[in-house]
Structures are given as structure tokens and as C-alpha cells.
Amino acid sequence: MTAADPDIDAFTRPYWDAAAEGHLLLRRCTACDRVHHYPREFCPHCWSEDVTWERASGRATLYTWSVVHRNDLPPFGERVPYAAAVVDLAEGPRMMTEVVDVAEGDLRIGMELEVSFRREGEVAVPVFGVRSEG
Ligand SMILES: [Zn+2]
């Protein structure tokens, strides 16, 4: 385990299993019909426990970002510079992630992105790149 490993338990296991297969999962609340991310056992909007897993489209738009040029925490040190970002998922939730394969000068608020997964040790971490046509 490293400092960057996500906290995987019985509850978040389906999320990481889906990620390993290339799918981003969200949680949809049956009571208020809102979607959230990162997965929680309770709906953060109405506190209902009646929340189910749902596969996301993987589409998002860029909300904001910060290009990180220095990070001493492994494994980030080997990866700088990288674009730490917040994206708006098509389904509504905002998600902290990383934008990959886009030059720093090409990053634009509202640019269309799609999810891909980067293998990090035991897990596949969702990152976002430019959405391909179609
Ligand atoms: Zn709810």
C-alpha cells in the first residue's frame, strides 16, 4: 500500500471491480433520484439509504484544474507535471480526477472529456482525456 491507494472496503469493492473492467459507477438515490460520486452508503442529498449502483456514461466536461508541477508524495513525484482537475459528469456529480494526454495550454473550461482508466498497482483509477468523436 502507498499513500495514494484508495480506501477499498466491502462497500466500495463493486466500484473498483467495475473500474478494473473499464466502467465508471455512480450511486443513484431511489428516494430523490439524484446521483452522487464518490460512492457513499447514504444519499448525501436526502440521507436515504435506498441508493443503487449505476453505470455512468463516462462523459464529462472540465470544470476547473490545476497543473501540479511538484508533489513529493509517491507516486505523484514521477508523474509531474499533471493536471489535477474537477470535472462535471454528464449525470450531474462533480468529480475530482486528473486530465491526461492534454497539453497544459490546451485545457479549457467546459471542454468535453471522457473517462479512461489508469492501472495503479491493484486498482484502476478513473482519469479523463479528450472525448473522441462519436
Ligand atoms: Zn436522495
From TrEMBL:
Q: Where is the ChsH2 rubredoxin-like zinc ribbon domain?
A: 16-51
Q: Which SUPFAM superfamilies does the record associate with it?
A: Nucleic acid-binding proteins (SSF50249)
Provide the ChsH2 C-terminal OB-fold domain boundaries. 53-118
Domain of life per record: Bacteria
One Pfam family of this chain: zf-ChsH2
Q: What is this protein called?
A: Zn-ribbon domain-containing OB-fold protein
Give the originating organism: Streptomyces flavochromogenes
